[in-house]
Structure formats: C-alpha cells, structure tokens
C-alpha cells in the first residue's frame, strides 16, 4: 500500500470522540477478574477496537486464568491459549497460516486481525525472544503487553517489569534490606522500535485514556505488519489500593511522567495526551510522590526513596535525547553540568 | 487382500531427512517452522530449497528457538494449516512445553525427530531418549528404518493425524546419522495421486476462524481435566484403527505396502516388522536402523542352526501390544535392544524392555526377557554384537536369568 493510502486508512480508522466508539462488545461477561482490574479493560478495548474478524491469542497469566474459565469464556471472537512464552511464535504461526491458506485458496481471502496478548512474564521476560522474532517478519500481527507490573496471577511476584522498590512476594522489605527490588523497570517499546526495523507502529497506552487506547489498537491494526503496544495496567491486588482508584492511578502514572504516552509511527515519536503537554513544556509533571503514596506496595518507602524515584523520572525528561522514551544521550547534545 | 494397481514410481537417491521433506512437499504443507540442530536439520534445508524452487508453496518460519518453533506450528495447525516441524536431542527437549500442548490442544502437527543423544556431554549420534520423553503425553510415535519408510510414513502421518477420529500430532523418529545422513534409493510415486490417499486437512468444528468463534484451551482446573485426558487417550486408541486403514489405503493407491520398495517387501503389518520369526526360539526386538545388523546376524546364526528371529517396532505409540503378544508368545527368550536408558527403573533396564515385559505379563506362558542397552550416542551396534546377543539369549533358553540387563560393549563391564 502506498503511504498516502495508509495515511487515509489510518485517518478513517480513528474514532473521534468517546461517543463514536462502537457499542458492540467482543469481550463480555463471563470473566472473573478482580474488581478494578485495568487489564480487563485492555481486553475489552482490544476486542472492541479490532471487531469481529479477529483471532485473539492469549498467553498464560491473569488474562488467561481469569478470562477463560471453561464454560464461561468471555470471548466472542475466537480465542486460543498459548504458553507463557509463546505469544510471539503463536501470533506468527496464526498469521503465517492465514496467509498461506488464503494464498492457496484454502480459505476465503479477507483481512483477519491477529492479536496476541501477554503479561510481563510472557512478554518482557520469558517471551521476549519470541516477541522479538515475530517483530522481524512482515506478517500482520499485533502483540499487546498488558503490564500489571508483577506476576499477578501467581500472587504478585516480582518480574523485570516491577517498578523499583515495589513490594511483591519475591521482593519483600525486611529488617536488613528495606528495598529488595533494586532493578529498574525494563523499557520495552524502545527495545522493539530500536531493534526491529520493519515495525511501523508501536505505542504505549494505559486504560485510563480509553479513546487513546482504542485508537492506538486500531492504528496498529490498520498500519499492519508486526506492531506492538505496551499498556500499563493498574492492578488493585498487586499494587495494593482500593479498586475505585484504578482510573486515577492510570492518570497519575501519566501526569507524574512515570508512564509516558507516545506512539512510534514510521520512524517518528508522537506524544499523546498529558505527555504531549509535558514534553512540550505546557504542563508541569506532578510529583511522583502523589502516585507512589497511594499504593501499598510502596508503603515502606522513605522520603529518600521517593526522592530517588523522582530523580530517575526527572532524568527521563531532562536528559534523554528522546524524552521519556530512550535512555540515550547524544554526544552532540550538551548536558548541563549538575 | 486388496487389489494392487500398477504405478510407475521414480527412483531417487536420498537420505532420510530429504525423504521426509519430499513427503511434506507431496502433502502440500502450508506452514513449516524451522530451527537448526543436528541431525534433523536437513529436513528443513531441503524444504527451504523446495520452496525456493517453486516446488512447494508454504510459509517458512525460522523460529527463535525450538519452543517458538513448536508453538508456531501448533497455532498454524489450529487455524487449519497443514504443518511440518522437527528437531533433535536437546532441541526437542527445549520445546517440551510446546510439544505437550500440541497434543493436548489436538493439533495434528507432524514432527520429525532425528534422534540424538541428550547433552551433556555433547554427541551428535543417535539415542532414543529424546523422542521417548513424550511417550506418555499423547503423541503418536513411529520409528522408521529406511528412507523409503520415512517418506511413506510421513504421508501416512498426515492422514492419521488429521483424521477427525484422531486429531493428534505424530512424531516420526529416525536414527541420527544412520538414517538422517545415509543415502538410499527411494521410490517416489507420481505426485498427482497423493490426493487419492491424503484428503485435505479439515478441522471441522474445531477450526479457529472468525466464522467459528471458539475458545481453545480455557482454564478448566479440577473440573474437567480427567475427562479431557480420557478423551485424549481414547483418540490414541482409535488411532490404531486409523493407522491400519491408512496402510491399506496406501497400498491401494500407491501399489505397494508402506516401506516396501519393490525388491524389498515389507510384511503387511503397520505396527511391527517381523523377520524370520515363525519358528524362532529367540526373538530380538529393536527400533530403527538397528534392524540392519540384526537381520544380518540372524541370517548368519540361522546358518549355524540357531532358531532366531526379529520383531522391529514400527509404531511405539500406540504401542502394538497385541502384535507383541502374538509374535512373542511362542518364543522362549526375547532380547530387547534398547538404544535408550531409563535410569533407576526396574532391573535398571531400557524403555522398550519395560514396554515389552509389561505387554507379556498377562500371558500364562511368558518368554524370558533380556535387555541389551547399546549404541548410545551413536556408537555402532555391530553384527558381532548382535550375534553375541543371540548367543546370550540362546543360553537362557533353559537357564534362569541371573543378569537381566547387559550394556553392549561398554568399557569396564565385560558382557
Ligand atoms: S490480579 Fe491484577 S491483573 Fe490480575 S485480575 Fe486482579 S486486578 Fe487484574
């Protein structure tokens, strides 16, 4: 497809206001996610955005265990389980099969969306090599990382996506070591866009911005080829807060700058929602404290810890060449002496 | 006896892996997933060339590892594509999680296992423990002996796997080196008649497609696993009938019994290959290419008056229990040659040994069973080795077994 044609199609695929979002649901009742589960919203958005001509593949995790209890599946579109580290390979296999079967006239020629979702373990840890491999092919497939920042389904264990210092069953504060998780969260979208040249679209999202999220899924599917979306999903059970604050925490993650919203389209970064205003200097980032203090998983933090996180977030916007995205400082950019 | 048509076949020199690749091309596979590991890899090298030359129209996925390789074909198979995959040794084990769900998700994938010793220490040579790792989880498993049998069994595998009474994956094992890399004459039937033998793959109501929005492999917990395992096991049992039908149909369509090349006539039994067994007092049992030294040794020893025969296992899953009983009930001693081991198992014997002993248990008059573990890591089992095995077997016709398990030619333990 010519670039102009794609641009037109993308423009057409975009939903202008929340009132224009289709009413049809393809992820419905029947699931048993926790109250306030934002990952469940990701599922709902992806099904809504993609529509009925879609095959969804789900790696092991909360969104497998809670969504597809036998006899009560919540999926109206076809849905297949893949193993924890299998989403990349499963998406590849599905997309390759559809292409071969259509080319050989064994099934009807038509666009069918292939979406594979995976959690932190299934995407950023065990599944990373498979996701990466899928991103090197030219099949139409979208991989969504629904990131609740822990292995939530197994009772909240640390993953490489758990934020610095957070309490989990594997990173419990103790008498001798107050902070057990000293690793910094993996930055997945930059891994995908820096390492996979034929990825034309990748984005971050969070369900607190529904229209932004739905449109990102639609854009990914419209632009086609291998595409990737990383969603930050507040999780009441893992983050330890009252479920009614899920939406608020998603907003705070963005407004504090901890979770920048952006999309990568054909070699360019476009900032979205409050992140755009932040990067353009029209809005001041809220202190990270406001985000951290609302979650029980950071209840052991001292002022010093909060300051440390604040410094790390400041650095993302003040020192990275592509603010909030890539931890790279160009040798041509003079970084102010501190 | 079914009537046999006259079919003109082309004779081609090829090794076991190439024979499989050609069969997959004949079967018009849609999706192939590859990852390199010796010695199975040449299957994929050949497929790649067949696609490049326009002989085969298929998607060729180079996976990021064997786990991804098997997940890829599993999902391709669930949306209706005919698939080919394979591996060897530790590569097969690296994929183990995906291999198990391929069976439990009832994806009729066909996999080639170029049998190889497991690491460590590294060895390219054959050992059967790689494929045997899946003996309990619902894969149909065949062991082939010649390139011809590899070609024929691959075509049969698709037909059996995709039969709606079965819908299970098939693993075709071939001895690394001895078959993967040795060239033999293979008879290739005319490609046009393959469709008379192999119908298109049709998953029916289990197809994953927007027109058929099913949920595959949901979380069932303690409520349903028993029933699902039981259904799976029943499909394995139904496969016996489907395999028999496929061999008969193969003969009808291609004009020869599977594994036969014209000069070499394969006995008409899909599950086992009996050789000089009718009056045999001592019967040797093995899987794969060990049949070669076995057959020569049997002929040699027959000349010296030993009444000895062979039973080669062609299908290990489903296990040919009835054939084993039928052919062994008149034997006095059975010598099982295992190219594998099962450490710490009863009598410290090999895997096939236990299967045979278990099959014979209910007989009133049981033959004695001896076990010979040999050829591990690709070491040759020589004609002399087999002759010695026959002699040991013969000695036990009237004497009780004091040492049930021998390690053939192992250093430090004279046998
Ligand atoms: S544990 Fe978290 S991610 Fe899992 S269902 Fe509950 S809220 Fe959702």
TrEMBL record, chain A:
Top EC class per UniProt?
Answer: oxidoreductase
The terms under GO molecular function for this entry are: 2-oxobutyrate synthase activity; 2-oxoglutarate synthase activity; pyruvate synthase activity; thiamine pyrophosphate binding
Q: Subunit details for this protein? A: Heterodimer composed of an alpha and a beta subunit.
Question: In which organism is this protein found?
Answer: Saccharolobus caldissimus
Q: Where is the Thiamine pyrophosphate enzyme TPP-binding domain?
A: 60-230
Range of residues in the leader sequence: none
Q: Which reaction does it catalyse?
A: a 2-oxocarboxylate + 2 oxidized [2Fe-2S]-[ferredoxin] + CoA = an acyl-CoA + 2 reduced [2Fe-2S]-[ferredoxin] + CO2 + H(+)
What does the UniProt keyword field contain? Oxidoreductase
The protein depicted here goes by the name 2-oxoacid oxidoreductase (ferredoxin)
EC numbers for this chain? 1.2.7.11
Q: Taxonomically, what lineage is the organism? A: Archaea, Thermoproteota, Thermoprotei, Sulfolobales, Sulfolobaceae
Q: Which domain of life is it from?
A: Archaea
Keyword field contains Isomerase? no
Q: Name one Pfam family in it.
A: TPP_enzyme_C
Q: What does this protein do?
A: Catalyzes the coenzyme A-dependent oxidative decarboxylation of different 2-oxoacids such as 2-oxoglutarate, pyruvate and 2-oxobutyrate to form their CoA derivatives.
Has keyword Oxidoreductase?
Answer: yes
From TrEMBL, chain B:
Q: What is this protein's record name?
A: 2-oxoacid oxidoreductase (ferredoxin)
Q: Which domain of life is it from?
A: Archaea
Species of the source: Saccharolobus caldissimus
EC number in record: 1.2.7.11
Asked if the keyword Oxidoreductase belongs to this entry, the reply reads yes
> What does the function comment of this entry state?
Catalyzes the coenzyme A-dependent oxidative decarboxylation of different 2-oxoacids such as 2-oxoglutarate, pyruvate and 2-oxobutyrate to form their CoA derivatives.
How does the record describe its quaternary structure? Heterodimer composed of an alpha and a beta subunit.
- Give the Pyruvate:ferredoxin oxidoreductase core domain ranges: 280-386
Q: Write out the GO biological process terms.
A: response to oxidative stress
Q: What is catalysed by this protein?
A: a 2-oxocarboxylate + 2 oxidized [2Fe-2S]-[ferredoxin] + CoA = an acyl-CoA + 2 reduced [2Fe-2S]-[ferredoxin] + CO2 + H(+)
Identify the Pfam families for this entry. PFOR_II, POR_N
Gene Ontology MF annotations: 2-oxobutyrate synthase activity; 2-oxoglutarate synthase activity; pyruvate synthase activity
Q: Which residue range or ranges hold the Pyruvate flavodoxin/ferredoxin oxidoreductase pyrimidine binding domain? A: 23-246
Q: Which PANTHER family match?
A: 2-OXOACID OXIDOREDUCTASE (FERREDOXIN), PYRUVATE-FLAVODOXIN OXIDOREDUCTASE-RELATED
Q: Which UniProt keywords apply?
A: Oxidoreductase
């Amino acid at each position: 497809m010519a670039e102009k044609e794609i641009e037109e199609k993308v423009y057409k695929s975009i939903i202008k206001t929340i009132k224009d979002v289709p009413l049809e649901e393809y992820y419905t009742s029947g699931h048993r996610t926790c109250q306030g589960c934002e990952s469940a919203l990701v599922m709902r958005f992806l099904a809504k955005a993609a529509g009925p001509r879609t095959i969804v593949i789900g790696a092991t995790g909360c969104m497998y265990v809670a969504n597809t209890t036998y006899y009560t599946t919540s999926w109206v579109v076809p849905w297949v389980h893949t193993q924890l580290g299998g989403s990349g390979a499963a998406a590849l296999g599905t997309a390759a099969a559809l292409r071969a079967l259509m080319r050989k006239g064994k099934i009807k020629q038509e666009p069918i969306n292939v979406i594979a979702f995976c959690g932190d373990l299934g995407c950023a840890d065990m599944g990373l090599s498979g996701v990466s491999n899928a991103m090197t092919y030219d099949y139409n497939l979208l991989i969504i990382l629904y990131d609740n920042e822990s292995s939530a389904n197994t009772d909240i264990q640390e993953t490489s996506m758990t934020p610095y210092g957070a309490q989990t069953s594997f990173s419990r504060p103790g008498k001798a070591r107050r902070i057990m998780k000293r690793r910094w969260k993996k930055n997945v979208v930059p891994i995908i866009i820096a390492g996979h040249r034929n990825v034309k679209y990748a984005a971050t999202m969070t369900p607190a911005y529904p229209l932004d999220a739905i449109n990102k899924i639609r854009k990914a599917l419209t632009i086609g080829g291998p595409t990737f979306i990383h969603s930050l999903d507040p999780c009441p059970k893992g983050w330890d807060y009252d479920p009614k604050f899920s939406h608020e925490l998603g907003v705070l993650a963005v407004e504090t700058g901890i979770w920048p919203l952006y999309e990568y389209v054909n070699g360019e970064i476009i900032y979205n929602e409050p992140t755009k205003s932040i990067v353009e200097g029209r809005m001041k980032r809220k202190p990270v404290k406001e985000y951290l203090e609302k979650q029980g998983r950071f209840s052991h933090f001292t002022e010093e810890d909060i300051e440390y996180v604040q410094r790390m977030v400041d650095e993302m916007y003040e020192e990275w060449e592509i603010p909030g995205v890539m931890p790279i400082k160009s040798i041509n950019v003079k970084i102010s002496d501190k | 006896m079914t009537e046999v048509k006259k079919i003109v076949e082309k004779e081609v020199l090829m090794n076991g892996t190439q024979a499989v690749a050609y069969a997959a091309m004949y079967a018009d596979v849609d999706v192939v997933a590859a990852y390199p590991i010796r010695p199975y890899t040449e299957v994929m090298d050949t497929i790649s060339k067949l696609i490049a030359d326009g002989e085969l129209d298929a998607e060729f996925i180079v996976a990021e590892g064997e786990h991804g390789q098997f997940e890829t074909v599993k999902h391709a198979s669930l949306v209706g594509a005919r698939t080919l995959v394979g591996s060897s040794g530790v590569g097969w084990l690296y994929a183990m999680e995906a291999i198990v769900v391929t069976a439990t998700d009832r994806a009729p994938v066909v996999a080639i296992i170029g049998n190889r010793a497991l690491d460590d220490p590294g060895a390219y040579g054959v050992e059967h423990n790689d494929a045997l790792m899946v003996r309990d989880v619902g894969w149909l498993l065949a062991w082939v002996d010649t390139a011809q049998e590899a070609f024929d069994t691959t075509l049969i595998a698709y037909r059996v796997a995709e039969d709606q009474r079965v819908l299970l994956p098939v693993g075709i094992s071939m001895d690394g080196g001895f078959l993967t890399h040795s060239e033999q004459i293979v008879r290739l039937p005319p490609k046009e008649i393959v469709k008379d033998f192999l119908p298109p793959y049709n998953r029916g109501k289990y197809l994953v497609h927007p027109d058929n929005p099913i949920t595959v492999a949901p979380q069932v917990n303690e409520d349903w696993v028993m029933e699902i395992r039981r259904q799976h096991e029943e499909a394995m049992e139904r496969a016996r009938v489907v395999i028999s039908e496929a061999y008969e149909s193969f003969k009808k369509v291609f004009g020869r019994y599977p594994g036969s090349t014209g000069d070499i006539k394969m006995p008409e039994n899909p599950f086992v290959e009996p050789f000089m067994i009718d009056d045999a007092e001592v019967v040797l049992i093995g899987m794969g290419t060990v049949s070669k030294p076995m057959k020569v040794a049997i002929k040699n020893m027959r000349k010296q008056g030993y009444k000895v025969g062979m039973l080669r296992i062609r299908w290990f899953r489903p296990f040919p229990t009835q054939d084993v009983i039928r052919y062994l009930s008149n034997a006095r001693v059975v010598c099982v040659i295992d190219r594998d081991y099962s450490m710490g198992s009863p009598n410290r014997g090999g895997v096939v040994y236990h299967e045979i002993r278990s099959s014979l248990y209910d007989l009133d008059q049981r033959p004695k069973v001896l076990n010979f573990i040999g050829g591990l890591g690709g070491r040759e089992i020589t004609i002399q080795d087999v002759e010695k095995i026959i002699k040991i077997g013969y000695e036990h016709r009237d004497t009780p077994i004091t040492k049930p398990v021998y390690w053939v030619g192992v250093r430090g333990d004279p046998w």
